[in-house]
Design goal:
InterPro entries: Hypoxia_induced_domain (IPR007667). The chain has one domain (2-63). 91% of the residues lie in helices and 0% in strands. The N and C termini lie close together (10 Å). It is mainly alpha-helical. Helix 1 (2-29) packs antiparallel against helix 2 (34-63).
Length: 64
């Protein structure tokens, strides 16, 4: 289980955070809608939370 979390799920979660972050930066640089920026920021925060939970689960599973 720890192997699955640390080698597959955690990189996917971190990649999702990076993609949403880049989309937000592109939207800001293009002068896009502030509503879109807010929506992307909320998604980024949620995905960061998920990535942290997955990382903590991986650490916990490795310690068992």
């Amino acid at each position: 289980m720890a192997s699955l979390l640390s080698s597959f799920i955690l990189p996917v979660a971190a990649g999702a955070v990076a993609v949403v972050l880049l989309l937000g930066l592109v939207n800001m640089m293009r002068g896009g809608s502030p509503d879109t920026s807010q929506k992307l920021m909320r998604w980024r925060v949620l995905l960061q939370f998920v990535a942290i939970v997955v990382a903590m689960l991986a650490v916990w599973a490795m310690g068992r």
